[in-house]
Amino acid sequence: MVTDQIADYLTRVRNAINAKHRVVEVPSSNLRKEITKILYDKGYILSYKFEDADVKKTIKIALKYHPESKVSAIRSLERVSKPGLRKYTNASDLPRVLNGLGIAIISTSRGVISDKEARSLNVGGEVLCYIS
After folding, report:
1. Residues linked to residue 57 through DSSP beta bridges, in sequence order
2. CA proximity to 29, closest of 131, 109, 128, 130
3. 70 with 84: CB under 8 angstroms?
4. Taking residues 105-115, what's their average pLDDT?
5. What's 91's DSSP letter?
6. With 0-12 CB in 10 A as exposed, 13-18 as middle and 19+ as buried, what is 37?
7. Contacts (Cβ under 8 Å, ≥6 apart) of 99
8. For the chain, what is the mean pLDDT?
9. Which of 91, 71, 87, 89 is nearest to 79 (CA)?
């Protein structure tokens, strides 16, 4: 059993990028689905597919690489709020990742959204991770 599903998700994606895999398969949950949708909307991954088999539900993520230099679109994945120490922020103190070039994924009362959307909605919440 995994105690921190977000850290497991980020580690699987990070390991697949380091190994230059094209597709990574991760166990599915509602939170992981929302994070995957945000990564797709912001252009960090090529595509995704939710596999709902009888026993095992998974997410297949096609990773995005530069066609010539083979460098991944995702440079770094960093878990911020951990089960032992939760990190919360209000709307006025939302973090900026790489001065706006990266994104922070925030769990708010309006759902799981990026930092830019949280600023426009003027809501705060738990800072889950940084992606750049």
Report:
1. 52
2. 128
3. no
4. 96
5. G
6. middle
7. none
8. 94
9. 87
What end-to-end distance do the CA atoms of the chain give, in Å? 28
Q: CA dist 80 to 35, 40, 50, 83, 99, Å?
A: 14, 20, 26, 10, 17
Tokens of 84: 């032992």
State mean pLDDT over 62-72.
Answer: 92
Query: CA 11 from chain center: how many Å?
Result: 11
Q: Counting beta carbons within 10 angstroms of the beta carbon of residue 3, is it exposed (0 to 12), middle (13 to 18) or buried (19 or more)?
A: exposed
Token pair, residue 77, equals 């994945």
What's the rounded Cα separation, in Å, for the pair 65 and 75? 11
